[in-house]
Structure formats: structure tokens, C-alpha cells
Amino acid sequence: MTMDEDTSWLDALAGRTESASSALVLEALALRGFIRSQGFDVAAAVPSVDPARERALLERARREGLLPRQAAPRRWYADTRVTFAAAAMVLAAIGVGVWRSTLPPLETLRGVTNGTVHLEARDPPALKRELTAELTAAGVRVSGYERLGHIGIDADLPQPVSSPVAAILERHRIPIPADGVLSVEIDAPRRP
To answer: Which range of residues forms the domain containing residue 9?
Structure first.
């Protein structure tokens, strides 16, 4: 076929010819008539998003084995990484608790000399501030001092000693003075 014959045949197939001049044009017109005589079903309009149809298609694909069956949801403890992480955290918490229990106490009662309670603390100024704040909150007038390398507090306790004040003294392991005059000296721990 030449270029002109091809063009004539394609024009006839497209319906752009008016006369049937050759066998090729007649052939193209016959093919065009056959194609047009076929009935094509035009599909009904399907909405672009249809959740019910999507679920139905997914279920059909699972039934026919195209998709795997839907697995049961996994629990958080089913993941071994999460389980090991939780176990490590518990062990770390236990380890920190054991380690802290082996540390020396924050404060140690060393004794009472001439009515003055002697305490040792890792941070003497912090213990002084804490005792002063607690006793003041309980209604006791407290005065602090620093002399000759020792820091401490003096306080006049109410007679009889109230239960909040007694609880503070007990928490810090300080004996209740018989005369109501509290004198506490706080030193850093002695080096062995």
C-alpha cells in the first residue's frame, strides 16, 4: 500500500470520506460499520469514594486469596522489643533503689553535748535551711548561726511540744529537749 492508499483507508475508517472509490475504501467502510454495530455497555457512574464498595472489594479479594486474611490486632506486650524495654526499666529502677539504700544517710545523729544536738549531713547548709523552714512553718521561732566553722540553729519550742514539731524532730532523729530549748549544730561528715 502506498501512502495515499493508507491515508484514504484511515480516512474511510474515521468516517471522513464521502465516496467509495476503491476496494480499500470499501473495506475500511465495512470495518467501520461492523465496529459501530457492536453494542457497548456503558458502565453506570461509580462514585469516586464509596466505603461500602471498598469493603466489599477487599472482602472479595480476601475470599479469592488475593489478599491475606486480616490478622488480629497485636497487643503492646506481644512485641518483644517493648517487653525487653519494660523489663530493663524495672531492673534499672530496682538497681537504683538498691544503690540508694547503700548510700550513707543524708544526716546522722552524732550525739548531744551540753544540750546541743550534733548532726552530720552531706549538705549542712541545705539541712539548716530545711530544718528552719519546717520549724518556722510549724510556728516555732528559729534563728540560724555560723560560728567557728559550724553552722546550726537555735529555737525555743512550745511547752508542751506540739505534735507537728515532734514529727519534724522525729523525722530528723533529733531528741526532744526537756527544757524546750533546741540547739542543733550541723557538720559535714568526717573523713576516715
So the answer is: 3-36
Residue 88: per-residue pLDDT: 92
pLDDT at 103 over 70: no
- Is the pLDDT at 111 greater than 60, yes or no? no
Q: What mean pLDDT do residues 91-112 have?
A: 73
Regarding whether 83 and 16 lie in a shared domain, the answer is no
Residue 93: pLDDT over 90? yes
Q: Does residue 97 share a domain with residue 115?
A: no
Distance set, CA 89 to CA 84, 85, 95, 100 (Å): 9, 6, 10, 16
Q: Write down the number of H helices and E strands in the chain.
A: 6, 5
176/123 same-domain check: yes
* Distance of alpha carbon 148 from alpha carbon 185, whole angstroms: 11
Tell me if 192 is assigned to some domain. Answer: no
Q: Is 111 left (phi over 0), alpha (psi -120 to 50) or beta?
A: left
Number of domains in the chain: 3
**Secondary structure class of 147 (helix, strand, coil):** strand
Whether 43 maps to a domain, the answer reads no
Whether residue 191 contacts residue 172, with contact meaning beta carbons closer than 8 Å, is answered with no
- pLDDT of 136 > 80? The answer is yes
Cell numbers for 123, please give them: 549538705
